[in-house]
Model the fold of this input.
Amino acid sequence: MNPEIATKPKKRSKQQKPCGQLMRGCEILVAALERAGVTTIFAYPGGASMEVHQVLTKSKQIRTVLPRHEQGGAFAASGYARATGRAGVCMATSGPGATNLISGIADAYMDSVPLVAITGQVPSYMIGKNAFQETDIFGVTLPIVKHSYLVTNVNDIARIVAEAFYIAQTGRPGPVVIDLPKDVQQARTHAVFPDEVKLRGYDPSPRATDIELEQIIELIEASERPVLYVGGGIISANAADELREFVEHTQIPVTTTIRGCGAFPETHPLSLKWLGMHGTPYANWAVNGELRRDGDRVVQVAPGADLLLAFGVRFDDRVTGKADKFCEHGKIVHLDIDPSEINKNRRVHVAIVSDVKYALARLNQMLRKRPLKKRFSSWHNQIAHWKQKAPLRYRVTPEVLRSHYVRDFVGGDVEQVILPPYVIELLYELTGGKAIITTGVGQHQMWTAQYYKFTEPRQFITSAGLGAMGFGYPAAIGAKVGRPDKEVIDVDGDGSFLMNIQELATAHIEKIPAKAVVLNNQHLGMVVQWEDRFYGGQRGHTYLGDPERPNKIYPDFVTMAQSFGVKAERVVFKRDLRPALERLLAATEPYVLDVIVPYTEHVLPFIPPGRTVADMMYEK
Done:
């Protein structure tokens, strides 16, 4: 395509309006983004995308945030999307710029996050010739997108952008890639902007029938031990209010996935918090029954759910363990907007494809007309017994006392040991449980999900499905941009924080007061835990400190943060933690708190992968 020659626009539909003046493709792109309501884009420029950046400098609506790495930009866009519910937007140049977005795109795909990723591409006449900085990003991302476009005609840009946002934000949300060759950016045409988007064969809002919903009510009436198992689908559908009303009508206890944290308030008496590999014992017992292993035999101590209402979940392996044993003795109803998830990981008894917000709203209407007579009091008593028997708890273990942490860092003073769960509990107290919390991936992620009580949707932002280290701080930046009214804190581990530490520069230069609490144990803590459990404690390159100076903290996050112009301090002794957190919360600028914790701690409870509740370890 010759960029100097204006190409003829395709025939317009009645819903489209032509723009009078001749526009370049890059100008059409930015205008289309503005029409889509975009106010922020996380974009790193390069040769194949600089045309768009030149236009962005003139936009009065869109703020361009310059990340210091394209992966950081993708994670920031994801944090923005998760905090606001609106599509996050990121952009990179061709080749390595585009490939650096891959982890962020995959993360959005796994967690059903609306994301529009725009990539510059070499000129269309050079595609397939191994041109400088050419990568087939359309082909590379095919398995990890909801949809993707390679734009070959300047007249398609406006339509494609409108479709991309429609696809990303409707139905089951997900990432959409727009790959835009440089010559298409430079080509000129009379722009045509669609007023509405309709895609043949795409139904983003399927609805359950009343007959299907009546079946759910009948199953509830016939059950004695029902449990609601809900996930990120509730949050994506903005159905938290409908869920709470449904629980008030039915009095069914609720457990969530990690992605579903905040979909139902964890301070509610009917909350079981979340279940799965590191979930609460009582949530796992409520779904599966209290089981224990006696040699090769599995003994049932108390039965679990006889009815599992799985709404907006995908039966992830970290939840189910051995899938065919998950809720083995209960009837399972799976309600989800995505038909591809039905019977994919776990065979169910009743399958309903529906928008969960509509289904819950309609169920509530039915229950108002015909209230349930059952209140499940004996089931509630059993769950209360389980909560009392195995609450989430922690203590200083003999392993901590024997570690060099006690000797070298707290000088043998056991009273000054800082355990990670204590940090989270104190953070919850000082924020009143109202902050948006992001995390990296690892032990700190699990402790945060366990000990911070989330009461609102979009309050806990974490890379759950992909489990991408380096996610936490960039996501906090994005969340803070999207929700400047909220306190946003990244709870991170030293390994995960270091992976995108350069984004401190973004926070400082862009004046984004995202904060970080780093639980620094000098190790890849979760991998160490698995080494201890399954490899006899043999260390396989999991120490992140300086082996020649094990009694010194390495690297020095305080000095590094300060070099970026970000305030930072380190806490070693428990007595100093509260005032340090208070200083962090009082700050009106980016802030890093480096908290030294022992590496010997394990996240409990723990169900080994591929095993069942009978194998759960919940006390050390």
